[in-house]
Amino acid sequence: MSASLTREVIHGLPKVLLHDHLDGGVRPATVLELAAEIGHELPVTDGTVEGLAEWFRASADSGSLVRYLETFEHTVAVMQTREHLFRVAKECVLDLAADGVVYAESRYAPEQHLERGLTLEEVVEAVNAGLRAGEAEAAAAGRPVVVRSLLTAMRHAARSLEIAELAVRYRDEGVAGFDIAGAEAGFPPSRHLAAFEHLKAHNAHFTIHAGEAFGLPSIWEALQVCGADRLGHGVRVVDDIALGEGTVTDDPEAANRAAVEDPSSLRLGRLAAYVRDTRVPLEMCPHSNVQTGAAPSIAAHPITALARLRYRVTLNTDNRLMSDTSMTKEMTALVEQAGWGLDDLRWVTTNAMKSAFLPFDERLELIEGTIKPAYARAAEGFHP
Ligand SMILES: O=c1[nH]cnc2c1ncn2[C@@H]1O[C@H](CO)[C@@H](O)[C@H]1O
Ligand SMILES: [Zn+2]
């Protein structure tokens, strides 16, 4: 089946994206134009869109999360006014719609957009307005997409309670939840307990970047101390899955094979079992992980073993600009390099929709009304 599952077919499939950074998906042409407008100096001087796009990709391709994150300086710099935030948010929605995304959660850290005098509220309102404008334009063009935002607090900073309060205040105006991001090592999520307590007191949703650059203690804290609804990445849960004398982490390619041929040869530790038993959604981002060194390659990415073990796996882009990716590209890479088929793509899409921070009835409507029928039609195409 996967032989005819071409990039074009995949492009036409509905997709659900839970983990996409607004400041990680700015169009390179927009970075170039806005940087010139505000006088922000960019690291490449040839003045071409291609040169800048390549600079982001290559700089992010360092094997280090810290260096990957340094590139955000140049997108955050051009997202400091109402007009610019509106434009970036609107273009994000249009780009996602063009990629076949039908539901997305776009995250960003309001505290990073105050350099030119905006308040936190003004930042959120400008992004919201841009998202709504993008939805309207995409719908008018026949590509309807629902986009909600997640407000991120930076884990090295100290504003998480304020940002959590902001997320609760704007929950009925398009903000679906909260997130913690930034360099992981040395900044455990438990530093932000007050924020999580506030969210729980108000029955609000949150996810935490955990188990990306740092391993099991980070995942354990995110779930058992903080109470996260989902895990951003979570890929290092495989440190707690034994294979032979070692773990999946030691030989992920062998683990992917073993998960298909003999799943019982993979033995889950207590934490790995807890994550699977309680159906914790994993927001997995293969290309980003290869760039930051969290995974060796697409073929050997643990997403395949975790999918075969029936974890609640979702597929995401993380940062479309830095990781030079899209949902179509993530899906196509798994089909071409990791043996995924149409059933797998439908499954991760449905998993993501089930795990969205959107009211249950709205999730169900997208699953029943949009996702299932489109995948059923695609499946017929393979069996005429
Ligand atoms: O993969 C990631 N891991 C941790 N932090 C990230 C990742 N991608 C982006 N950000 C951080 O999240 C901020 C808000 O969107 C970005 O500015 C970046 O610093
Ligand atoms: Zn991320």
How would you describe this structure to a colleague?
It catalyses: 2'-deoxyadenosine + H2O + H(+) = 2'-deoxyinosine + NH4(+); adenosine + H2O + H(+) = inosine + NH4(+). The chain is an alpha/beta fold. It has one domain (2-382): Metal-dependent hydrolases (TIM Barrel). It contains 17 helices and eleven strands. It has helices at residues 7-11, 28-38, 49-60, 65-70, 73-76, 82-98, 120-140, 160-169, 193-201, 216-225, 252-261, 270-277, 286-292, 303-308, 327-338, 342-355, 360-382, and strands at 15-21, 101-108, 146-154, 175-181, 206-210, 230-233, 241-243, 246-247, 266-268, 282-284, 313-315. Helix 6 packs parallel to helix 7 and helix 16 (342-355) runs antiparallel to helix 17 (360-382). The longest helix has 23 residues, at 360-382. The chain is globular and about 55 Å long. The two termini are 12 Å apart. Bound molecules: inosine (NOS) and zinc ion. Zinc ion binds at residues 19, 21, 181, 209, 232, 318.
